[in-house]
Amino acid sequence: MEVNSIKINFATYLQVGIFASSKPNFTMNTAQNTKDRIIELGRNYMQRIGYHSFNYKQIALELNIKNASIHHYFPSKEDLGLAVIEKDRQDFIYLTQKVKKAKAMDKLEALIASYEYYYREGKKLCVISTFSSSYNEITERMQLAASQYAELVTAWLAATLKEGLESGEFSFKGSVEDLANIWMAMMPGALLVGRTGGQAAFDRTINSLRQTVKSS
Amino acid sequence: MEVNSIKINFATYLQVGIFASSKPNFTMNTAQNTKDRIIELGRNYMQRIGYHSFNYKQIALELNIKNASIHHYFPSKEDLGLAVIEKDRQDFIYLTQKVKKAKAMDKLEALIASYEYYYREGKKLCVISTFSSSYNEITERMQLAASQYAELVTAWLAATLKEGLESGEFSFKGSVEDLANIWMAMMPGALLVGRTGGQAAFDRTINSLRQTVKSS
DNA sequence: TATAATCTACCTGTATGTAGGTAGTTGCTT
DNA sequence: AAGCAACTACCTACATACAGGTAGATTATA
Hints:
Two copies of one chain form a homodimer. The first copy, chain A, is mainly α. Chain A has helices at residues 2-21, 34-49, 56-63, 67-73, 77-98, 104-120, 127-133, 140-166, 176-211. In chain A, 74% of the residues lie in helices and 0% in strands. In chain A, helix 6 crosses helix 8 (140-166). The longest helix of chain A has 36 residues, at 176-211. At the A-B interface, helix 7, helix 8 and helix 9 of A face helix 7, helix 8 and helix 9 of B.
């Protein structure tokens, strides 16, 4: 009993350590149980090394559980892939709620901050581009989930751009939809460019992106 | 003797078929021997499904040779990866030579044409973004080769943008280097966006990219 | 005691890579 | 020009490693 309670406390301590070094994408880390922790670590690995290069063993080692235990929560890898996409989508929705009353530029900056975080924390890709990169070799359900999530972000971007345009905060030529597309392409593109070109290339690209809403 | 000559003719016939269905990236297909054909098919697969998902067996089947024969030409997968990057770099150089005397916009259109070809032929990524996607799980030599190749393209873009700006063909704000960075991010970004968003999303992104050199 | 969480111990498939061999060609030497 | 060496382009067969996944037992918890 005592041994067990010590074990549990130590595990809890470890979890805190894990959380501290693997911050969430958009929001505070809410992983408390093993299942959430698996999703969190899975997302991390997928963004770093891709859906296919990631494997259960890596997570099992970090959580001090066995491979088979992960299958208990996620019978197939696809299940975990879908859970990661869904978690990221929820976190994105949470972010948009949090900045609902902020200025349009601050909304965009909140999204940019996520991407800057991705880059700094191990040159990660965002979840959408992670699955886009592997698009031709993932199941249809994952393709669909990724596409729907991408559409959600695109719609939010368009709405935010429209808002800033109508309030006079932004000024740009071309349609709101076109600029939303540019952001959708350039944000993951900046992460890719940052991988080969380093921090400076990443920063320049993000700064150029910011300029697109300022009388361009 | 006769049997052999028939065999050879049949093999030659097959090769023609293979070439017809796997066009090159920037230039005419020059693959004549097995080694070049392996590079060509390898590049194709890598752009479609990524460096790690691609495997020797797929090529072996298509070329009607055995797995081990590919190791004869490329002892390790890294060797083939490096050969693919180098081949693509050479093809890019060939493309730039071909359009050396063209107008700046035509130069950019030549590059765009490659990307439209990638998208239409199986939603491929470009070689640089293929290796960027797997950047954290490829060898240092491949990282370096990809980075150097990316730098080459960036420099060519900057030179071309400068050329068009000075001739009055283009008009844009911001520095030539910044716009080169935008192109470097948006072209692969368009391919990623096209995977989740389909042809329309890809086309819109590419069209937006074209607008960046026209009084933006 | 029922259920959840986790374990041990497997199986299957497959990818990279190696060892060693063969048939045919090219090139060198006398 | 004959004969041998060396090379090219493959082959068969195997070694190694590891990933995804399953079955059934065990332990902890409500």
